[in-house]
Amino acid sequence: MSAQRRPGESGTIVARNPKARHDYHILETWEAGLVLTGSEIKSVRNRKVSLKEAYGTVRNGEVWLESMHVTPYQFSGYAPQDPVRRRKLLLHKREVRRLIGAVEQKGLTLVPLDLHLSDGRAKVTLALARGKKLHDRREDLKRRDAERELAREMSPRR
């Protein structure tokens, strides 16, 4: 399996949230560290992670990632962790204050876009997002189809 790299970063993408950009308007993004146990990081390195149902919350001045599924590591010797437990995100205080103010606004939520490894550490790209309405999603699909058709017509093979 080939590792995907982002331009300008040393991290390899482990998991993506497939519906995030489809269901939300992305307003701002942050890179946050993720607190994991020893067996969880091994599962992350084996790409046994799902971000489909995940979302971020702010509680007591801390940012948490909820509902991210990390499959228990096969060779874990001690009691396994809950696969969908709440995991703490590591951000600077000023970023947390900014997120607290933004999430309190009506209609804004925290959505993880991807999970990647950077210098051996698990990082989450967290986005401040506003949910799209059904007509917005339809417009995006129409625009994408039109761009694809235009690219097909402009291709040198035609």
Give the SSE map.
Blueprint: E1 12-16, H1 20-23, E2 24-34, H2 38-45, E3 49-50, E4 55-59, E5 62-66, E6 69-70, E7 87-90, H3 93-103, E8 108-118, E9 121-131, H4 134-154
Antiparallel strand pairs: 1-8, 2-7, 2-9, 3-6, 4-5, 5-7, 8-9
Task: Supply database-style keywords.
158 residues, alpha+beta, Small Protein B, Chain: A, 7-stranded antiparallel beta sheet, two-stranded antiparallel ribbon, 9 strands, 28% helix, 35% strand, globular
Brief digest:
The chain is of the alpha+beta class.
What's the CATH class label? Mainly Beta
The gross shape turns out to be globular
Overall mean pLDDT? 85
Q: Order of helices and strands, N to C?
A: EHEHEEEEEHEEH
Tally of domains: 1
How many strands in all?
9
Superfamily (CATH H level) name: Small protein B
Q: Kindly, what is the distance between the CA atoms of the first and last residues, rounded to a whole number of angstroms?
A: 34 Å
Stated plainly, the CATH topology is called Small Protein B, Chain: A
Structural class: alpha+beta
Enumerate the spans where pLDDT stays under 50 for 5 or more consecutive residues.
Answer: none
Q: Report the biggest beta sheet as strand number plus sense, adding barrel if it closes.
A: 7 strands, antiparallel
> Which second-level CATH architecture applies?
Beta Barrel
* Beta fraction: 35-45%
Number of helices: 4
Radius of gyration: 18 Å
Q: Strand order, main sheet: write it out.
A: 1-8-9-2-7-5-4
Helix content: 25-40%
